[in-house]
Amino acid sequence: MGKILFILITLFLSTQIVIQKRYKKLIWFFIGILFIPLSVVVIEYPYTNFPRFIIVLFCLCFFIQNSRTKTKFNQFPLSLPLLITFVCFFLIGLFDERIDFASKIMRPIYYFLENFIVVFLAYFYIKSLNEVKKIYNFILVCFCLFTIYGIVNYITKYDSYSGFIAEIYKSVDYGNRYTINGDSRFRIASFAWHPIYYGFLLSNAILIVALVFMEKRMQIYSRFFYIIVLFLLSLNLFWTNSRTPLLALIMGLSFFYLFAVKAKSKIRIALVGVIAIVSIVSISPESLKLIDESINTFTSKGSKLEGSSLEMRQVQMAASVIIFNKSPYFGNGFNYISEDLGYSTEDDKRSSDIDFAGFESYIYKLLIEQGSIGIFANLFFFIYLFNYLFKMRKKVDLMGKRLIYLTISMTISFLSFIIGTSDMGSFMVFMTLLGVNLKGIQLSSKKVNSSFLKKELNLVNS
User: Which of 87, 189, 220, 286 has an alpha carbon 20 to 30 Å from 163's alpha carbon atom?
Assistant: First the structure.
């Protein structure tokens, strides 16, 4: 019965993505990737979980419902790094000697679709700054639901949504793994599949609140609403009891504070931040322990909480380099870590070497599975992105600059997160937000004139 329920939900979301126009497609896509975890299987064979199904559908909608797709892709500011990334991934698949020819083709395609292509799709379906505003505020409304359910998790010490899905699909119940029978720290996950991943989602939502609170043109609700949302997001972030999302947010938020906030507003905003932290600590005193343990992670003492200290990460890096040297150019292939090294998120099924621990960094994944060509693809993509953003600073108005600083902050936070604890499926959400941000930046350009807008409308109607 449970599987039928999720199939019906998938069909409903799919129908909305197909029939809706422009940014509304993106809204339904967001609902899917935020609320439906990767453990939900839509098709048993070939194995297709919800994220894979929804992104393939999203791509098909673009190609079937639009003409002149090549022209539209060429207008995308990151078309070159996106194309190079795809070619690099395709080569990784072709040179993977472990798998058959069909898998050599499909694995890199699926990996590219699930991690990168959505940045272009999100960019394409946004057509105005008003739609950017609607997307941001819709996301914040979604996170109101997340945080309210997070409070329920905290009070009841149980995540019924995660438990329900785990029972249906016989998957690991991460939502309750750290509540009734986990390690020494209690952690919430709300609707997310894992507390650490939930922390990543919250950090992005907090950065969006920071922008919307400062930029009146992005506001739909009262400023009091955004203050309440910020408080709920911050409270939930501490209740995830996860160091990496907190540290990643601090890095991203620090950049945003330094560059996006006017000098005369810095003191006022800093005071608001202090008051918020004091309020959270007074409500949840154990938050101080998370801050203390986060600091200890970067010292010789190490953290007493479950996870990796710097010393442990050095051991993992050394072990990863050994595997990297077996196939340094094209890597050992996608899924090599789980299929050949025996790594599993379930401890009783894990047979990988103890030196690898939990493969707690995206760097290890790059070294082992993607090799030099995968490292090049990722570096080229993000370096190209930063270069584009810095160039655009001189071409946009004040709101455009704030959108640029938001994008840089999100990227800093995202990179810090995946380096600190692996990607955990975070690429799809980040790349979707990145696509929205990039279109907002382009629309904020001082040089956006009627000819550009006319060209956009012609492409939409074609």
Answer: 286
Which one-letter DSSP state was computed for residue 67?
A: S
213 alpha carbon, distance to own chain's centre: 22
d(CA 410, CA 430): 8
CA torsion sign, 294 to 300 to 302 to 307?
positive
Q: How far is CA 385 from CA 104, 256, 437, in A?
A: 28, 17, 12
Both tokens assigned to 28: 């339904």
Cβ-proximal residues to 398 (8 Å cutoff; 6+ apart), any chain = none
Distance CA 28, CA 14 (A): 8
Q: What is the DSSP letter of 349?
A: G
* Residues of the chain falling short of pLDDT 70: 179-185, 284-310, 342-359, 446-462
- Is it true that the peptide bond before 46 is cis, omega within 30 degrees of 0? yes
> What one-character-per-residue DSSP string does 220-242 give?
SS-HHHHHHHHHHHHHHHHHTT-
pTM attached to this predicted model: 0.89
Specify the pLDDT at position 313: 72
Start-to-end Cα distance in the chain? 43
d(CA 455, CA 353): 56
Whole-number Å distance between alpha carbons of 33 and 38: 9
By the 8 A CB rule, do 208 and 260 touch?
no
- Predicted local distance difference test score (pLDDT) of residue 275: 78
